[in-house]
Amino acid sequence: MHPIRIELHCHTHYSIDSLMRPERLLETCRRRGLERLAITDHNSIAGARAAAALDPQLVIIGEEIATTEGELLGYYLQEEIPAGLTPAEAIARLREQGALISVSHPCDRFRSGAWNLDDLQRILPQVDALEVFNARTMKAADNQAAEDIASGAGLLATAGSDAHAYVEVGRSGMLTPPFGDAAGMKQALAQGQIVRRLSSPWVHFLSSYARWQKMRAASRVR
Fold first, then answer.
1. pTM higher than 0.85, yes or no?
2. Any bridge partners for residue 104, and if so which?
3. Is 55 helix (H, G, I), strand (E, B) or coil?
4. The domain 4-221: what is its CATH number?
């Protein structure tokens, strides 16, 4: 059985700092040979649902959830998780719907959604995985720290591009056996291989540009 290429961290224009439209995003994935795409918009599954309606085989409905302590990644969601819950509350809601749970860029010193180490250690028994490679993480030591923590805790690894622009899609990701649901994804990740390619630091300016464009558009509506 040949491995498939998967992208596990990607944002659509439903996120404040991304301009990617679901239709073009799916076309980009197909051109680059990606066979599973997890859309993980910030505190929303609207973009993932829109994309899944176009290609349910390709798209995993996910979400990047801002808790009171740091950000979580949920995969195969049925219902949206609101921002601002405690980690325990968010994890409980994810478990109720059978989602797979990872922790996004847990050790990235430049992210507002990174975790305090003590807070992270407390939730490790409650999650399935850690994101051990994020293509937007600028310090290699921060990705390595996440990988060391995951290995020490016996957790699965996830990796992704954290793409907010088409140029980033598939930059990083994983090669895994095929899967079609959260349980299958958990088994596949256990056999997964990480594709480690960093994005250029300039991609952060694309997020800033997207945020500015949306704020500008909103001001015109008022």
1. yes
2. none
3. coil
4. 3.20.20.140
